[in-house]
Amino acid sequence: QGEYLGDLGFRRRSRVGLGLQVVALGDGQFEGVAYPGGLPGYGWNGEDKVSLSGSRSESVTDVTLILDSGKYQVHLKGPLALVFSTEEQFLGSLHKIHRASRTLHARPPRDAVILFNGQDAEQFENGRITEDGLLMTGTTTKLAVNDFHLHLEFRTPYMPYARGQGRGNSGVYIQRRYEVQILDSFGLKGEHNECGGLYRQRPPAVNMCLPPLSWQTYDIYFKAARWDKENKKTANAVITVYHNGFPIHDQQEITSKTGAGKPEGPEALPIHLQHHGNPVRFANVWIQPGPVASP
């Protein structure tokens, strides 16, 4: 499982980039998604892609995965993926890569409030820490928020037999009202209920989800809804989200609460990290309260 990148073609001027994401489904079964131009956020044209599927074959001396799209095959062995046509013509090779978020381990600015740095969970209600110093789900900040920039790092678990909403599910509930979904959506389409989606309202512009067990980042710039003296809403909340350093929502209005969120209102409320039965973990969480311009 993972990401692969390389070129098809042998002449320099006619080479075409290709990215590949391989997703484990358990019992030696895999799915793949091939992206012309490169990987999501890294060369892919954002439109064309090819689905593949296959299973691992084992012998005494070799372990190989063959993925088939009906148009071409990809043979994977170790860190190498060889691409062939249906007529068994060799088209090119891809190499396994390990991408990291552009904002992983980002240092908090001087005016930031450190919510979690692995030492304690004092900034959270019912905060729990694993033995290896990671924050667990099902906790809420003691700090109530209006406008802010939140940096948060998260890791989804490896759950090859799970599907859909049962695979690495959590969420960042801003003001306990608006959810930015967390899910193991690696290799999926990128829907409103997948990683980076504004739940039931808007999908991410591109699915920037890395493979499970990879550390990923959200940088969320939030402007709270505005209300008049009669508690009537005069402006929707506005959100900008960077997933792994790539913009997936840009100045997007949130028209109402999402899913099971609390009703909208003028009062500031905290941020909740949803527990959905899956061992999602968090690290390096900090927040800049007040208006903060996105990059």
Outline of the structure:
The chain contains no helices and 22 strands. The strands form 4 sheets. Strands 1-2-3-4-5-6-7-8 form an 8-stranded antiparallel β-barrel. Strands 9, 11, 13, 16, 19, 20 and 22 form a 7-stranded antiparallel beta sheet that branches.
Q: What can you tell me about this protein's structure?
A:
The chain is mainly beta and 295 residues long. The protein contains no helices and 22 strands. The chain has an eight-stranded antiparallel beta barrel. Strand 14 and strand 15 form a beta hairpin.
Number of separate strands = 22
Tell me the overall shape.
Answer: elongated
Task: Please indicate the percent range of residues in DSSP E strands (runs of 2 or more).
Answer: over 45%
Beginning-to-end CA distance, first to last residue? 32 Å
- Going by helix content, strand content and strand pairing, the class is mainly beta
Q: Name the helix and strand elements from N-terminus to C-terminus, one letter apiece.
A: EEEEEEEEEEEEEEEEEEEEEE
Helix share bin: under 10%
The strands making up the biggest β-sheet line up spatially as: 1-2-3-4-5-6-7-8
Gyration radius, rounded: 21 Å
Catalogue the unreliable spans.
none
Q: Write down the overall mean pLDDT.
A: 95
Largest sheet: 8 strands, antiparallel, barrel
Give the oligomeric state of the chains in this entry, treating copies of one chain as homo and distinct chains as hetero.
single chain
- Figure out the total of helices: 0
